[in-house]
Write a structure and sequence with these properties.
Layout lengths: L2 E6 L8 H12 L6 E6 L22 H11 L3 E7 L7 H8 L9 E8 L4 H13 L3 E2 L4 E4 L4 E2 L3 E2 L4 H24 L5 H31 L3 H5 L2 E8 L7 E2 L1 H14 E15 L3 E14 L4 E2 L3 E11 L2 E10 L2 E2 L4 E2 L6
Parallel strand pairs: 1-2, 1-3, 3-4, 4-5, 4-6, 9-15
Antiparallel strand pairs: 7-8, 9-10, 11-12, 12-13, 12-14, 14-15, 16-17
């Protein structure tokens, strides 16, 4: 049976990770396709990385490292529970990951984050790290807000919409574990030739995810020059505001410039992105929300929209050639519906 570890990534006093891990485990325990177990870093006290040799060698000198390696090796995949500290994941979690290498590689991983803004920056950082370790990161994730999903910012009471998001994340982690078992067995030789294309697709998929992360970072920095580099010059955009379409990079950037003039600071969040990658064309769809502080100091929470990005590979680089943003329509009322949650 597939074994999934639910890793609590914080050890600080008063942490909320135990509540989140218990919520994930309680939901996961009802499934019949895997066995789920909570891994608590408090049970694995690891000093600041003290191994004399790189983890890549697998030659662990200390007993605490060997014990940690044995724990991680028992699992086929992981759900990492992470808070967000100063726009990043906790140092204790990064340290625990850095101790090992082979025990992580080719295993599935999904992310459940929490924080003032849902912990999305922490999960994004972890995604990049895990991809470098050749882990199979899954796109669906759960982002819990301290403001709306914790009573008095202390007791976890997640919104109902998070149940579906968690189920989707678990579906993908379990499925990715099955893929890992299927591809781990062939010996080197002809099997490598058969999987070269799949590895290329995984590399492109990771590049597209990083591309989306770059868009988020550029929007939050209000950096038009950086945004210019992610779109093709002939991009066609079906944005949320009139007209029906914006054609060309200058029109697209003018749209973003208008947004930036209204906000002192901007937060952009994307969720449940699902990429589909071909040889030179790819697309991804999911949900996005823009929020922040207006020029007059008013905080606005924004609303969720449906987003689609279409990519074309040009000279080896993936660029957005089309994007579309939309909301459902109340047919009888003739108005967009903007109070829905993914």
């Amino acid at each position: 049976m597939t074994r999934i570890g639910i890793l609590i990534g914080s050890t600080r006093p008063g942490r909320k990770g135990e509540q989140v891990a218990r919520w994930v485990h309680d939901r996961a325990a009802g499934r019949g396709d895997a066995v789920f177990e909570v891994i608590d870093l408090l049970d694995h006290p690891l000093p600041h990385l003290d191994e004399p040799l790189p983890a890549l060698t697998g030659r662990y000198q200390h007993e605490h490292t060997r014990a940690w390696a044995a724990t991680v090796a028992r699992f086929d995949g992981f759900v990492m529970i992470t808070p967000e500290y100063n726009a990043s994941a906790p140092a204790v979690l990064k340290n625990a990951i850095d101790y090992l290498y082979a025990e992580w590689t080719h295993k599935a991983v999904g992310f459940v984050s929490y924080g003032a803004r849902g912990g999305v920056l922490a999960s994004r950082q972890l995604r990049t790290l895990c991809e470098l370790l050749q882990m199979g990161t899954v796109t669906p994730q759960v982002s819990l807000s301290l403001h709306t999903d914790f009573e008095d910012q202390a007791v976890l009471k997640p919104g109902a919409h998070h149940i579906g998001a968690l189920d989707t994340l678990l579906d993908h982690v379990v499925a990715r574990c099955a893929e890992g078992h299927a591809t781990a067995a062939p010996a080197r030789g002809e099997a490598d030739l058969e999987t070269d294309g799949a590895e290329d697709l995984e590399t492109d998929e990771a590049a597209i995810r990083r591309h989306i992360d770059g868009i988020v970072d550029a929007i939050q920095a209000k950096d038009l020059d950086r945004l210019r580099r992610v779109y093709s010059t002939d991009v066609v955009s079906f944005d949320i505001d009139p007209p029906l379409q914006h054609v060309g990079i200058d029109a697209k950037l003018k749209n973003w410039a208008n947004v930036f003039t209204h906000f002192q600071d901007v937060t952009y969040e994307v969720r449940d992105l699902v990429p589909t990658v071909g040889e030179d064309l790819a697309f991804t769809h999911g949900f996005g929300r823009l929020r922040g502080t207006l020029a007059d100091g008013t905080a606005v929470d924004g609303f969720w929209v449906r987003v689609t990005f279409c990519f074309r590979k040009t000279d080896g680089a993936w660029l957005i050639t089309h994007d579309q943003v939309s909301v459902p329509l109340d047919i009888l009322g003739g108005r967009g519906v903007v109070d829905l949650e993914p």
